[in-house]
Amino acid sequence: MKKITKVLLFILGIVFFFACKKEEIIQAELDKEVRVPFPVNDGTFNISFETFAPSTYLKDFDKRDYPGVDSITFICSLLSGNLSDTAYVRLYNVTDSSIIDNTLLAAATPLSTYVVVQTNNIFNMLPDKKIDLAIQAKSSDKNNYIIVASAFLKLRRN
Q1: Average pLDDT for 78-88
Q2: Which end of the chain is more exposed for a tag (fewer CB within 10 A), N or C?
């Protein structure tokens, strides 16, 4: 009986050890990525870039607040009125009144179907200071409405 108890305790110890290690690995992966959402679900008929309302801004964003981050991508879902229309979106630095380079994204979507689009790494395009970030969008056709939803910055460290 003592031998069986020791074997069971040994097996439980191994299971517990690997369960803890798995949890540590999962936590380590989660610690490598942060998603910073824009509170936006907005659209436009405009054929010139329109800055969405201040209530949708990412206020006081500073990449230096995230130690070790070396990759930032902008991701959002776009919906255009029809396949002949293209939805365009980009990031805008409200603080400095300037467009964030390399953030222009576009998609033509089937009716009622969102398309997820994302930039390459824009870490070096963002200034080393606090800024208010906005989303700007436009439609390629003034008769069609485009929608931007589920927008966020994905920050990663290696």
Answers
A1: 87
A2: N
Residues 23 and 2 in one domain: yes
Q: Output the CA torsion sign for 35, 36, 40, 46.
A: negative
| Strand 98-99 versus strand 115-118 pairing type | unpaired
Which domain does 18 fall in, by range? 1-31
Q: Is the alpha carbon torsion for 146, 88, 51, 103 positive or negative?
A: positive
Q: Which of 91, 88, 70, 71 is nearest to 79 (CA)?
A: 88
Residue 39: pLDDT band with limits 50, 70, 90: very high
Structure tokens at 130: 């606090």
13, 45: one domain: no
Local confidence band at 15 (pLDDT 50, 70, 90 cut-offs): very low
Q: Does the pLDDT of residue 52 top 60, yes or no? A: yes
Look at residue 46 and tell me whether its pLDDT is greater than 50: yes
Q: Name the amino acid, one letter, at 39.
A: P
Burial class (CB in 10 A: 0-12, 13-18, 19+), 14: exposed
Residues 90 and 151 in one domain: yes
